[in-house]
Specification:
The complex is a heterodimer of chains A (about 625) and B (about 375). Chain A has 22 helices and 21 strands. Helices cover about 35% and strands about 20% of the residues of chain A. Chain B is mostly helical. Chain B has a two-stranded antiparallel ribbon. The two termini of chain B are about 30 Å apart. Chain B is built from 16 helices and two strands. The chains are: A alpha+beta (about 625), B mainly alpha (about 375).
Chain lengths: ~625, ~375
């Protein structure tokens, strides 16, 4: 008991001490409040009668985005909005009717304004209309006295002159969301109408493009209207961003894709990794996002089965199909499983365990060496090789070629894909790897998923002498170089690479799978590889129903058509990857597109012209 | 004799008896405090009950029920779960940190499917309960042993470390303040604090030397936000203008021009005190401070009347926790303290904070109701 008393005494003494400290702190707060409101308060009080001084933030202009030759891809248009502060008007609807006496306002915007006014606090201004022209601005300015609570605000409206053509590269801006405001507490973001990058380059380089806000000390009257400006610090525009893209060529590629229902293509520099064109079809007009997209437009984009909002080049993942065979070949050569003289005989199928794996060619290819195996895309050659190679060595080579990595690419929509091996399957599926799955993987089927961007990178690494090049889009901001040419040597035997490229050359010469799509102009010839990746196997039941050909299947179940290519044949500079979603066959659907865009890029030859700077 | 009498009453274990034992005075003060909050939120929305005030009123009603429910819960139960509860909270914090990293960026919430919980809020309470449980079982001379200093320090700093990496500096700081106060009240040697504080002070110049230029700049802006008027200092400058122009009698309810003309940011959350004091002036501001002082004083009064060391320390620690929040928030909006971004409990709009404050007061009331209950020394 005594001990308890001792404890209580100790606690009481010490708690009193802390209590006293808190008392002091509370007293300090009271004194501070008194100081601010009574002693210093006079400073603000005189102004509080009629006018008040306040600091207003001047939002910066967003930095421009231009292509490699300085052609504008994202720029700012002057945008005048007419706003009303609900708190300062007796009846918002009446005020809008008053405004309509001077300028036209459509019913939809009126509805939107009224709804917004209901939802927001009364002191927050609502927009009645934007994109006012000069006449309208001056008419309203002249009549402001008759329109209490109304004011005009000038701001920037982001504009994308290339519209659909560059939508997936440049991206778009939009209003700041609440979660973005929580993350970045800068008062700039909570300014009404301020916009930030939402996708593509716009969001990736937000910091560079945003710029620095300025400020103005202004005197405002009781209605909150600025009476006079006392001082001003100008805002600084965001830096100009120069991309590796060739805008005109980009538009050409985009146009070329429109013959298909859903397709994507990328063309890049085999040596530097600079992306010259990155196009998706269908696409969307990013201009409809600035200033808020309508629900109808949004639903239409979202629900389109061809997914116009998706960047299929960087974020679309597909089984690479036969375009993957070069990786299998190189893995086999490097591991010593095959050499220049290895030949096999292809009877049209390959038996492994209890399973029979078919070659795409029914009767088989007969005697096949590596060059012929690539040129004619003989599946059995790769089945056989891969069963000796094993999945783990194949997977290691796949990763060296850039598949399974986001490649540090500058678009946030980029996806890494999947490179399956024994460890991957154990982790993802909790199952053991079957050797039969290696057979599937050898021709780019099964779990393997790659993006067209990765396939283009893979092709670049094959034809540039085995340099670990990575794709990039952002070149310079101001004078600062943003890209890095990665030319680490991947350590491949040059002889092996030569054998593979010879096979790729063969694809577009007599006997090759895409012979009909060769480029005939001298000096512009290309090499490449077709790929047809299975979406769904035609089942026995369907066969019984008479479905034999791809065309008989519904669109979304047909094969994807792929093509990777490079040109010119000597010292290749350009590589491309093309996918036609559910296009049927690589040679029939993807190769013609590749032929046209590879010819065009060589004619324009953007690589030899220096990138515009500053 | 009077001791016997009071023990007779508080041993009345019927529900009605317990409810009668709640210190209703403090609950009444909390109601006044909450009402000030409702009025301010009503004003922040420009004279609308939506979107903030209505929600807050519903939450308060709900939280009041929780307060009473906790107050009548047997304190032996609170005593028993003190250790396991702290352990669970640490595990939850770990989970948040792990899944937070997967989700990129700061994440304080843990989604359990059915409910979402914010373990950092729980950590404030669990640390206090855990420390109180620890000191309850120790004699004064034992408390002064090194081992018995290190264990409580671990109880404090393990959750603090996990909270700070979320990153949630404000909550981490609150746990440290509360924990150190517990150490002090628990009877840790004065020398420990003298040495601790003086070595911390001595470490400042060394840490400063080790910092990069940009880090030093960041600290400077943190300590003196007004040196960066468009960034960190924007809120504070605006807050001071709003406060100062309020004057002695204020601008009147719903008439706070600085707040309503949109120059005061976050007026419904962190800066709600400013809005109140702009509209109700020095009189309203001092009244609010007085109410807060009374609530805190009540907490001390409850702590002093408890017979077990556990209840005493719990009531004390949770009161400290509340007052740390209040003092830091109000100090911040007046430009006395750096901006840490913590809300004013109860008044600021937000459900979690409201719930956690009322839960804490529920536990304080539980200590009051069971002030004469004997609790075992050992495990």
């Amino acid at each position: 008991m005594e001990r308890d008393q001792e404890k209580l005494d100790s606690f009481t003494r010490r708690a009193f001490f802390i209590g006293a400290l808190q008392g002091v702190a509370l007293a300090a707060l009271s004194l501070r409040l008194t100081w601010l409101q009574v002693v210093e308060g006079d400073k603000y009080k005189t102004l509080a009668e009629n006018n008040r001084i306040n600091v207003k933030i001047i939002p910066p202009s967003r930095g421009q985005i231009v292509d490699r030759f300085g052609v504008s891809l994202a720029t700012n248009l002057q945008n005048f909005q007419i706003l009303v502060t609900p708190e300062q008007v007796e009846n918002l609807e009446k005020t809008i009717v008053d405004i309509k006496r001077f300028i036209s306002v459509d019913d939809l915007s009126i509805k939107k304004a009224l709804r917004q006014a209901k939802r927001n606090a009364k002191f927050l201004p609502v927009e009645v209309r934007d994109k006012l022209n000069w006449d309208e601005v001056s008419t309203i300015e002249l009549n402001l006295a008759k329109l209490p609570g109304v004011f005009i605000q000038g701001g920037d409206l982001r504009s994308y002159p290339y519209k659909e053509a560059t939508a997936h590269i440049v991206g778009y801006v939009g209003r700041v969301t609440e979660s973005e405001m929580d993350k970045d507490k800068s008062p700039l973001l909570s300014m009404p109408g301020f916009q930030v990058g939402k996708s593509g380059i716009e969001v990736e380089y937000e910091e560079i493009l945003q710029g620095k806000p300025g400020s103005a000390e202004v005197e405002v009257n009781v209605h909150g209207r600025t009476v006079r400006e006392l001082s001003r610090t100008a805002s600084t525009q965001g830096d100009r961003l120069i991309l590796s893209i060739d805008a005109e060529y980009q538009r050409f590629v985009q146009q070329r894709l429109t013959t298909e229902r859903s397709a994507a293509a990328v063309v890049m520099d085999a040596k530097t990794g600079a992306v010259y064109a990155l196009a998706n079809h269908p696409s969307f007009d990013p201009n409809i996002f600035t200033g808020g997209i309508s629900v109808m437009d949004w639903e239409q984009l979202r629900d389109d089965p061809a997914h116009p909002l998706n960047n299929k080049v960087a974020g679309g993942l597909y089984p690479p199909g036969s375009t993957f065979k070069m990786v299998t070949a190189l893995a086999g050569l490097e591991a010593g499983v095959i050499n220049a003289n290895t030949t096999i005989s292809c009877p049209g199928h390959f038996d492994f365990g209890n399973n029979r794996f078919h070659c795409w060619k029914h009767g088989g290819h007969g005697t096949v060496n590596l060059t012929k195996a690539i040129a004619q895309s003989c599946d059995v050659y790769f089945y056989k090789m891969a069963s000796a190679l094993g999945i783990d060595r194949l997977a290691e080579m796949t990763r060296r070629m850039g598949i399974g990595s986001d490649l540090d690419f500058d678009l946030p929509e980029t996806k890494a894909g999947a490179v399956p091996d024994t460890a991957w399957k154990r982790k993802q599926k909790d199952k053991v790897w079957h050797p039969g799955e290696t057979i599937n993987a050898s021709i780019g089927q099964g779990y393997m998923l790659a993006s067209p961007l990765q396939l283009a990178t893979m092709t670049a690494r094959l034809v540039n002498g085995g340099k670990a090049v990575k794709p990039w889009i952002a070149g310079y901001s101001g004078n600062k170089q943003l890209y890095k040419v990665s030319d680490d040597d991947l350590g491949f035997n040059p002889k092996f690479l030569e054998m593979i490229t010879k096979g790729m050359e063969g694809v577009l010469t007599q006997g090759g799978t895409a012979y009909a799509m060769q480029i005939k102009e001298a000096g512009f010839e290309m090499g490449g590889k077709t790929g047809t990746s299975q979406v769904k196997r035609i089942t026995k039941a369907e066969r019984a129903q008479g479905i034999r050909r791809q065309e008989d299947l519904p669109w979304h179940l047909r094969h994807h058509a792929l093509f990777v290519g490079y040109a010119p044949l000597v010292d290749p500079r350009y590589v491309c990857a093309v996918i036609v979603e559910h296009g049927g066959s690589g040679s029939g659907a993807a190769a013609p597109i590749a032929r046209d865009i590879m010819l065009e890029v060589q004619k324009r030859n953007p690589a030899i012209k220096a990138m515009e700077q500053t | 004799m009077s001791i016997f009498k009071s023990s007779f009453f508080s041993d009345d274990t019927t529900l009605i008896g317990k409810i009668r034992q709640i210190a209703w005075g403090q609950v009444f003060l909390l109601c006044i405090f909450a009402t000030i909050g409702f009025l301010s939120l009503y004003s922040a929305a420009g004279g609308h009950i939506d979107p903030w005030a209505s929600q807050q009123i519903v939450r308060f009603g709900f939280a009041l029920g929780i307060l009473v429910a906790i107050a009548v819960t047997d304190i032996k139960w609170v005593f028993r779960i003190a250790y396991p509860f702290h352990g669970i909270v640490i595990v939850l914090l770990l989970l948040v940190d792990i899944f937070g990293h997967v989700g990129m960026g700061a994440q304080r919430w843990l989604d359990l499917g059915v409910i979402k919980i914010q373990p950092s809020e729980l950590a404030k309470m669990s640390t206090i309960l855990c420390l109180a449980r620890f000191y309850h079982g120790k004699e004064l001379h034992e408390v002064k042993q090194l081992k018995n200093i290190l264990i409580p320090l671990a109880m404090i700093f393990i959750p603090v470390g996990l909270v700070v990496v979320q990153p949630d500096l404000g909550t981490g700081l609150a746990i440290v303040f509360g924990g150190i106060a517990m150490l002090f009240a628990g009877g840790v040697s004065i020398w420990f604090f003298v040495i601790g504080i003086s070595s911390a002070v001595a470490a400042i110049p060394i840490a400063w030397q080790l910092m990069h230029d940009y880090q030093q700049k960041r600290v400077m802006v943190f300590l003196d936000p007004e040196s960066d008027p468009l960034g960190a200092g924007f809120h504070i400058s605006q807050s001071k203008i709003a406060l100062g122009s309020g004057g002695i009698s204020g601008k009147g309810f719903l008439e706070g021009t600085q707040s309503h003309l949109n120059f005061l940011p976050e007026k419904h959350t962190d800066f709600i005190f400013t809005l109140w004091a702009e509209e109700w002036g020095l009189i309203g501001g001092l009244f609010l401070l007085f109410i807060l002082g009374m609530i805190i004083l009540y907490g001390y009064w409850i702590a002093f009347r408890c017979r077990s060391q556990f209840a005493r320390l719990v009531a004390f620690g949770l009161t400290i926790n509340f007052s740390v929040y209040v003092l830091i928030n109000i100090g911040m909006v007046m430009g006395l303290l750096p901006v840490v971004g913590i809300p004013l409990p109860m008044m600021s709009y937000g459900g979690t904070a409201m719930l956690s404050v009322m839960t804490a007061f529920g536990i304080i009331q539980c200590c009051n109701v069971h002030r004469d209950t004997r609790l075992p020394k050992g495990f």
